[in-house]
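Form P-L/3: holo structure prediction, ligand zinc ion.
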Amino acid sequence: MIKCVYCQNQETDSESHIIPEGLGTGPTLLGAVGRSCNNDFGKVEQVIIKALAPITNFLQLTGKRGKRPALELEADFGDVKQRIKVRNPQDLKQRLFSYKTAISSDGKKKKIAFIGPIDQLEEARKSYSEKYPNTTWEDMQSSDISDVAFYLHFDFAIFYNPFCMRAVAKIAFEWWIKQRSPGVVQGNEYDAIRNFIKAGEFPNYPIVSIVQDRTIINAFGPIPFGIHTLFCSIDPHSSNLVILVGLFSLVFYKVILTKRHTALAKIEQLATVNPQTGQYYEPIIRLSLRSGPYISKIEKADCIDPLKAIQNMKPFLLNRLNNGFEAIRAQST
Ligand SMILES: [Zn+2]
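OUTPUT (holo model):
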């Protein structure tokens, strides 16, 4: 009798997206997860989907309702900073409508840009004038418009957010179940991973950690930014069953699915998911990990607080993110 792999209820009628739907399309798991567990995870995954909007928007991924996620941009112009929400570049064009120089009563010139729906221009100008009476307005030259700078804030804190780590653990767990069967995870050796995914309970070992080892990260170098990476490493000398999850191949996580796995032979399995097409692919790339540390060991670096790990990695990640965006931009033009 098949039971839900999370709560052991005998109801497994729900289709679980191994990669959260908001992070693109991909393989699904059928007949393993009950509806109520699946619904609960929606809330966990929502946190990461929202925070990763700058990436998913850039990759033109659409969520459940077929819409690109909204991005919050900061428009910096002269003395004024404004936050605006856009879904695509066309949105931005529609919203940028008027640039004015305001001259206040003391004769000082202020550069002010109104950014918003066109029908709100007059209203915005009126309310500004009420606040600062005696303001006169000058139309600006179109050349001044190029002075507007847009900033996109990307908060790396999401990568050590416990909700993110649970979502990552869920990806690893469900990929493993998809490879094998719901039956293989019914035993209590998988309780720790279940409790972590379901309730965020941390065991006394680094069940999900951020990979800092450059040998490991570089081994996945051929996989471009934007593609999700999954890697399973089984070593008969270790009882740890470890799966690596590379979210957009930007941040790599090590997930210990169980510490009581008996393996007869060494297995290394690599898979990628293209979140734009949903294509699941098992590339034949010989990973140069043999000389490096085995993934199935628990290393010192795995025990580092994820917050510290991201702080250590930030220059590297920023570089990877910028290069990744640049490569995709170059492809699309
Ligand atoms: Zn359940």
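COMMENT: The radius of gyration is 24 Å.
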